[in-house]
Amino acid sequence: MIEFILGKYNYWIYIILMMIGFYAMIAKNNLVKKIIGMNIFQTAVFLFYISIGDVKGGTAPIVWEGMEKVIYVNPVPHVLILTAIVVAVSTTAVTLAVVIRIYEEFGTIEEDRILEALED
Amino acid sequence: MITEHFPILLIVVPLTSALSTPLIGTLNKKYCWYTAIFSISLSLFMSLYILNAVMHTGRISYWLGNWEPPYGIEYAIDYLNSYVLVIVTFIALAVTIYSKWSVEKELPEKTVLFYTVYLLLITGLLGITITGDIFNLYVFLEITSLSAYTLVAIGKKRNALVASYNYAILGTISATFILIAIGYLYMVTGTLNMADLSTKLPPLYDSKVVLTALAFFMAGFSIKVALFPLHVWLPDAYTHAPSVVSAILAATSTKVAAYAMIRVMFTVFSPEFIIVRVNITHILSWIAAFAIIVGSVLAIAQVDIKKMLAYSSVAQIGYIMLGIGLSTKLSVTGGILHILNHALMKATLFLVAGAVIYKTGIRNIEEYRGLRREMPLTMLAFTIAALSMIGVPGTVGFVSKWYLLLGALHEGKWVFALVLILSSLLMLVYFWRVIENIYFPKMHVAVAMDGGDKKKELPYTMLVPILILALLCIALGILAFIPLKIVGMISQMLVG
After folding, report:
1. What would the mean pLDDT of B189-202 be, rounded to a whole number?
2. Which of A20, A36, A39, A94 to probe by mutation at the B interface, max B CB count within 10 Å?
3. Which of A90, B148, B220, B242 could staple B177 via S-S, CB 3.0–4.6 A?
4. Alpha-helix residue ranges (DSSP H) falling in B229-304
């Protein structure tokens, strides 16, 4: 049991962070807090990708002479996640821009107040 | 030859024109429309060429930068995606031709930016469809989604902002789920190429990691497809977006998401795995049946025409998913055919709704009375598309429903047959309300509207796309063998 928890601690961290972010995205009332939750949620997935690329005792995948027998970590997930980071940054930018416009129109970024304003 | 590079040019042409639109817009913002028309016409031509090539020679594989597939990105085109490519480019062209006046009126100051993001949306949609690499699919999915959030947010009313925000939050959850699923598959197979995955996955079907990946994929795509009960972002987004955006999103983006879902279910995983081993298709068909009923019932309750059409989309997505869920050859034919048919019908309906808003500002169904006199041809197009949605014989809606019904009865699943018939009745209810208001207004109102005999039909660039789409709703209903020829090959490929 302890082995199950400690041996795979990187995955547990990813799951816990993901759930924190997911909770914030759904349950928070403040629109900016939701975006913060979204960032935590996405970052958790980045951590997951980075940890699946790791090889125990591995080093950075740079090959030079005399070092052919060294174990390298898998660089592919890290490269993939660079793309996903760019996507996450763009998503944050777009949603924050929308929140600024919402604040200009409604004068608040609390979801319940906005819904009240929409019903009027 | 240049023709062998068509798969990548299909993406590059709209992408480069999207990036050059802001520059062209500084010269004269009217040129943006011509740029969009030009690049999307080129895309349509290329996708037709690709469809023709695939029909003759089978699967086309294009290696980006000439890197061999499992290592490099591959664009793989078979019957299914060449069919979806033609639908997307054709609808996009019709909507773009229409967009000229509509955008100029609804978004006078944002024309340049609108066309930039619009072309990015088309690029993303084509990219999702054409790619044979699953991570590439995720990237294009996010390009599509980000441009869709932006396009919804530029709607005039402030509701559009809230709709866009909610769409963005749910869309990000969905995309991140898909990213997690891709990570799980990469973890056990070490590859991202779809064809390669499909050969490496079968020995691992018992692995919990693969099952988790499937679960994340299905949850993620269900949000993108707007499958009930994950459809909550759709009605508000479609209602408050500018008319052109509602039309293009309703007609293509959910279809492309449905395509991606089918691709993952049938190509990355195998029919044997999803139908026999996990039996996820059984669950899918029940969810789809609920989507059809709930979407139709909610549509009846709406007074805003765009919201009614949006809820009707939720029901129509249910048809496509029901066809896939029943997963017999007949029902898959019906489901895949409905991708084309629904794109035609919904594009017509949303374009007409947009045209009415353009001319008169009317959104309420009750106020449609008397429009028959002012916009006879537009209303005729609306009626054709509405009858097609109901499934009147001789229209496209009938053909796909017929195949779905045959598929359900053939399997002895009469519950789904019943759902299909009941939903047609519900659709009759909500579309008849509109048709009744158009053609049979109550007397006192009709007299009031008769006052001026000004005929104000639409400008030609708006009218012609609507009429062509409406005409196709009938033409492809009568000449159903043309789309059925390719759809038959697709269903043979998927479940045959």
Report:
1. 88
2. A94
3. B220
4. 233-240, 243-248, 254-263, 271, 280-300
